[in-house]
Amino acid sequence: MKILALMGSPRKGGNTDILIDQILLGGREKGHFGEKLYLYDYDTLPCIDCRRCKKDLPCPHQDGASHIFQKMEEADALIFGTPIYWYGPTAKMKLLIDRLRPYIATGKLSGKIGAIAVPSEEGPACCGPLEEMFKMSFQYLGISFAGAVLATAYEKGEVAKRLDDLKKAYELGKAL
Ligand SMILES: Cc1cc2nc3c(=O)[nH]c(=O)nc-3n(C[C@H](O)[C@H](O)[C@H](O)COP(=O)(O)O)c2cc1C
User: Fold this and answer.
1) Nearest to 169 by CA among 152, 33, 93, 111
2) Longest C-alpha distance within the chain, in Å?
3) C-alpha to C-alpha distance for 158 and 62, rounded to whole angstroms
4) How far away, in angstroms, is 88 Cα from ligand 1 center?
5) Mutate to test the pocket of ligand 1, among 9, 121, 127, 162 (most ligand atoms within 8 A of CB)
6) In a 3-state reduction of DSSP, which class is residue 135?
7) How far is the centre of ligand 1, averaged over its atoms, from the C-alpha of 87 (Å)?
8) How many Cα atoms within 13 Å fall on the side-chain side of residue 101?
9) Is residue 176 within 8 Å of residue 32, measured between CB atoms?
10) Is 152's C-beta closer than 6 angstroms to any atom of ligand 1?
């Protein structure tokens, strides 16, 4: 199985990055192939609601997202990693989610499994709206929700000290 992780924090080596690596480690333990893309490395424009995709016409934005989409289509499992920013995902992650609109018509993400990795200062108690957003969006796209790692961490790399959260991430990767 191919696992693709979408790293939606601007901090390389930060908490989201560490959680994703643990998930991929667990997946590799089970013999899965794992890959990670840093969303902040790609120039991606926001959806402009032109509705061309509803008419089966190509998206007017041919940008960095094209590469991400190709990788997403090839993957069997998708990990969406984002820190909590104001009780939601980072702008870069939200921008990518908005751009998934063509997949409603094509159904090309349908049948895949998806999971989320989310660090925040306040911890799991503040992640309800974000988790629900992912669950509902996955449902719309035909992606089965495979689990969430909601960790408590604030400083860069702090989650590395949280052995319980690392274990949860590793176990999620193994269970994919
Ligand atoms: C713009 C911004 C908004 C944030 N909003 C929240 C928030 O609403 N609740 C919270 O618990 N943490 C919030 N945080 C803290 C981050 O979620 C936390 O530092 C996280 O561990 C960062 O993960 P990273 O190292 O992967 O970037 C915010 C951080 C930033 C920069």
Assistant:
1) 152
2) 49
3) 37
4) 10
5) 121
6) helix
7) 9
8) 20
9) yes
10) no
The model's pLDDT over 29-73, given as tens digits with 9 standing for 90+, comes to: 999 999 999 999 999 999 999 999 999 999 999 999 999 999 999
What distance in Å separates the CA atoms of residue 55 and residue 102, rounded to the nearest whole number?
Answer: 10
pTM given for the model: 0.98
> Of all protein residues, whose CA lies closest to atom 22 belonging to ligand 1?
83
Q: How far is residue 122's CA from residue 5's CA, in Å, rounded to a whole number? A: 23
Q: Quick check: CB of 155 below 6 Å from ligand 1?
A: no
Any ligand 1 atom below 6 A from CB of 29? no
- Digit-coded pLDDT (tens) for 103-133: 999 999 999 999 999 999 999 999 999 999 9
> Is the CB of 18 within 6 Å of ligand 1?
no
Question: Given strand 2-7, what is the order of strands in its sheet?
Answer: 33-38, 2-7, 77-81, 113-120, 144-152
